[in-house]
Amino acid sequence: MFENIPGEVGLVHVGERIRKNDMYVELGGPEIKEKFELVKVRPLEDVHDGAITIVGPDLADMDSSKKYPLGILVEISGKELEADIEGVIERRIHEYTNYIEGFMHLNQRYDIWVRVSKKAYNRGFTTLKYVGMVLERLLKNELPIIERMQITFYTDAEKISPVYAEAKQSYETRDARARGLTDDDVDVFYGCALCQSFAPSHVCVVTPQRYANCGAISWFDGRAAARIDPKGPIFPIEKGECLDAEKGEFAGINESAKKRSLGEVNRVYLYSAFTYPHTSCGCFEGIAFYIPEVEGFGIVMRGYRDITVNGLAFSTMADSTAGGRQVDGFHGISLEYMRSPKFLSADGGYARVAWMPSDLKEQIKTFIPPSLADKIATEKEVKTVSELRDFLIKNTHPVIERWKTEEDAAAGEHAGAVQVFSGGDFPLTAGGFKIIFKNARIYADKVVIIPVQPKKPGTGE
User: Fold this and answer.
1) Residue 307 included in any domain
2) Domain count, the chain
3) pTM of the prediction?
């Protein structure tokens, strides 16, 4: 099936990581603004079957010291195809391109990040057309209802812009459609196991009001995928009995999670970041992170390059949040979930959000209650947790009402002590030390950490 493609193509290569020293070239990624992958259903006469086009420099023409934009436009046609399938096939791009030895694909939609290894390039993987050939063969093999397919790769910084705008509009149209449905309106949710090769215990649950963590699969996408590929990685989950309406716990989800995670995950809360939060894979668009000093949440998205208000970068928190774990207080989320009325609803929703980057705040401002918009701090107003606390007091953020309740409880249980940390299985690294707090809530009068210096040989000092 892949005899004319340099290198191996197969499931064994999923999860391969290409580090900078092993990289020939990088496309997309956090430093490139315009990148996308888009699938569109077109009329039969508009699709030239088998055509693979490169708009811009191909791999052989690229300077390995530079970073390039990347757009992947897959146009398909077939009498049985409907627009609902577009988002499902887009997510398959991530899966199938990772089958290629020496080719690393991360994330989805407008956030893709690709690296090609030096070894792959040196053995002849010198054109993106090989990527197109793999996609075409695997997608047609899995979905025979695709009758024709053409693929275009955009690597030119100017020519990618109009297609990037089309992609963003397509994503928004799909997402807006899903917002009209509630979790109470349906009897079936959907699960997605596409990321289990990276996070074996992760089971993504997709509901009308809780998008997949990657932001690429809506409830409608899940329904379409399960119908056309009943044995595929996206599958129906019967809701079953509602065990906790506030937190979003359903018997059917618990049963499915236990089965799919091989017993690692037994309970899931859809609408809370505490106790039994939804697992996080690694493809999540953002992280909701608990800030114990203010009893509130910070939100950070993958593209944010600075240090967040708690002193950690997105990458640091992502390493600790991902992997299919349930980390109390650290919660992988999608941007579309932030537009849902169920967003952290069991924890207080936006009345519990204390900080987020200014760009993100602008992006979702129409979904933040007007009474709270000016009360949520950004990096423009505060840089530290201490400054955040002062900001929340000054702006009478509703989260401060929780402080007195928390302090009263702490005073009764731990007289004379103050809370210094609470959280899940979360490591803090600083000055050579790595401290892992596992479901901890620690109170102390004072905490002093002193590094122990190695003794000088022969001195006893």
Assistant:
1) no
2) 2
3) 0.71
